[in-house]
Amino acid sequence: MFENNVMSRKSKTYFKNQQDLLYSSIIIIITLALSACMAENHLHQAIRYSEASIIADDGATIARHSTTAISHALSVQDQEYISSANRIHLAMAIVSLEKAIENGYYDKDDSARNAARIAIAHFKEIKITK
């Protein structure tokens, strides 16, 4: 009777450890998948705000949309799934958006829109791999 009770405790401990391992693995997989999805979402938002910069009516609005696009682009930059080639495109897009902000504040609307177009072209070259 005593031996069965000891075996029962060992098997429960083993099962609990296996179950914890399974749950931990599932959480890790979900976290990695969500991280990649978040990077795609931030990239998509950066593109959307850059597009909004192009169709904005005045320089201040161009600058405001470009600023928001930069914040999303910086979130993409923090992801580990971005390759070095994609990081170069991301950096060039951010530089273009900074030019769009500067030109927008100085009421050079056409130059600001052109800089936002260049940023979009760089954003669209980025491929996020999981």
Number of strands: 0
Shape: elongated
Overall mean pLDDT: 82
**N-end to C-end Cα span:** 53 Å
Number of helices: 4
Strand/helix succession: HHHH
Percentage of residues in helical conformation: over 70%
| Main sheet overview | none
Low-confidence stretches: none
Helix vs. strand class: mainly alpha
Radius of gyration: 24 Å
Report the sheet-strand fraction. under 5%
Question: Key features?
Answer:
mainly alpha, 130 residues, 4 helices, 85% helix
Word description of this protein:
It is a single chain. With 130 residues, this protein is mainly α. Helix content is 85%, strand content 0%. The protein contains 4 helices and no strands. It has helices at 2-54, 59-77, 84-105, 109-125. The radius of gyration is 24 Å and the shape is elongated.
